[in-house]
Amino acid sequence: MHGVIGRRGRKVDGQISQSADIADKNVQPPISFKDLARFAWPEKTEAHLAHLTRVDPRTCRRWLAGDNEPPAEALGVILAEIMKRFHQRD
């Protein structure tokens, strides 16, 4: 049994599901690895990331471009830097 319930959702087999346009309004786009890295180091992002993760700067460039997925260690280094700066504000 199919029926339409207002503009909020659609009833399908006893379940109410939101339409795609309503659901998309509540979802924020994810923050990219590049955005986090640039937030941590606005200048010389690639060099800082390469130094702290002990990898080649070209590898970091690929991570920042989105060509390769960075390892969790790289994300941890970025988050640690952001948190360090956050705690220095006090």
Could you characterize the architecture of this molecule?
The chain is an alpha+beta fold. It folds into 2 domains: 1-28, no CATH class; 33-88. Helix content is 54%, strand content 13%. The protein has 5 helices and 3 strands, in the order βββααααα. A 3-stranded antiparallel β-sheet has the order 1-2-3. A hairpin with a 3-residue loop joins strand 1 and strand 2 (9-12). It is extended and about 55 Å long. The termini are far apart. The mean pLDDT is 82.
List the helices and strands and how they pair.
Elements: E1 2-5, E2 9-12, E3 15-18, H1 20-25, H2 33-40, H3 45-53, H4 57-65, H5 72-88
Antiparallel strand pairs: 1-2, 2-3
Protein traits:
90 residues, alpha+beta, three-stranded antiparallel sheet, 5 helices, 54% helix
List the secondary-structure elements in sequence, H or E.
Answer: EEEHHHHH
Mean pLDDT: 82
Largest sheet: 3 strands, antiparallel
How would you write the strand order of the largest sheet?
1-2-3
Q: How many domains make up the coordinates?
A: 2
Determine the N-to-C terminus distance.
Answer: 59 Å
**Category by helix and strand content:** alpha+beta
Question: What would a concise description of this structure say?
Answer:
The chain is α+β, with helices and mostly antiparallel strands and 90 residues long.
